[in-house]
Amino acid sequence: MPAFLRSRERLFDDVETVVVTSMHERKQLMYDQSDAFVVAPGGIGTLEEVVELLSWKRLDLHHKPVVFLNLNGFWNGFFELMKHSVDEGMTPASFLQAWTVADTVEDAMAQIKASDDAPHLQHDRR
């Protein structure tokens, strides 16, 4: 968590809190220490982080699995927006394979385990 957010965010005693100097450092640290990403329902910060993560994947900067935890259809609007971007020719159709969707935490974990055997996404090279 960036130092400036310590007084604004709720801290959980059950997990270690790592304090960094900036949002960029936070995202880089989370990325570096992660083998996969489960995107839980969240606000604008979560949306900003996942868009950057998917952008990196689109640019072949990583091959880590991204699983959206789509509780009660929370992410459906986002998926529709991404499909619209493809339909309008702004994004290659292969981008829609950059993530998977799970309705439960158990399903998300199973997808991450299964992704170890999945081939890497190969985007077109426009």
Report what the structure shows:
- This protein is mainly alpha-helical.
- Helix content is 38%, strand content 8%.
- The chain is built from four helices and three strands.
- The chain has a three-stranded parallel sheet with strand order 1-2-3, with helices on both faces.
- α3 (76-87) links the parallel β2 and β3 (100-102).
- The radius of gyration is 16 Å and the shape is globular.
- The chain starts with 22 loop residues before the first helix and ends in an 11-residue tail after the last helix.
- The mean pLDDT is 87.
Mean pLDDT: 87
In this structure, how is the largest beta sheet organized? 3 strands, parallel
Number of helices: 4
**General shape:** globular
Spans of at least 5 consecutive residues with low confidence: none
Oligomer: single chain
Record field, number of beta strands: 3
Distance from N terminus to C terminus (CA atoms, Å) equals 37 Å
Percent helix, as a range, is 25-40%
* Sheet with the most strands: spatial strand order: 1-2-3
Beta-strand content: 5-15%
Radius of gyration: 16 Å
Encode the helix/strand succession as letters: HEHEHEH
Class of secondary structure makeup? mainly alpha
What labels describe this entry?
126 residues, mainly alpha, 3 strands, 8% strand
Write the layout of secondary structure elements.
Elements lengths: L22 H10 L4 E3 L4 H15 L7 E4 L6 H12 L12 E3 L2 H11 L11
Parallel strand pairs: 1-2, 2-3
Brief account:
The chain is mostly helical and 126 residues long. It has four helices and three strands; from the N terminus they run αβαβαβα. β1 (37-39), α2 (44-58) and β2 (66-69) form a beta-alpha-beta unit.
